[in-house]
Design brief:
alpha+beta; about 20% helix; Nuclear Transport Factor 2, Chain: A; 7-stranded mixed beta sheet
Length: about 160
Amino acid sequence: MNAQSGIDPTVFSPKPTPCANPADLVEAFTAAFTSDDVESFYRLISAQAEWVIMATGETFRGLDQIKQLTRRPMAARTHRGGPGIKPTTVFSSADGSMLCWEYVHTGIVIDKWPASSLQRPAPGTTFELPIILVAEIREGKIIKMREYFDLLTLTESGAPHHLYS
């Protein structure tokens, strides 16, 4: 206990957290991610966060790189009639340290597609891409995000792919 303030430093954190309650973070993340309110989204990300695209192995470290990451897909697609991000399954761990956010992203590819791959969807291609985000949360902010999706869904849209049959 701090004798001057009477505050126990093990209980009180002088830094406010944006989402002390896990349900608040889930709600704030969902509101920001299903809109074009990227500034609210950025406030949920730790300055030292890491975002890993599991399909390609790309890793973006720190808020500045994550901002660059979010700008690329926004510049590469458009949506018909509003945001094309629709959550399907959302839950967090009881202690609020993990968030799983499953959604379907639909859109239309435009000519600013950012990928360096030769397998690019043609501009005008409509896509429907299931994605799962798994976030690690510490002190009310996302510190690590792993993004899972099937890359062939985008690069070879409509082509059937089988691994075990």
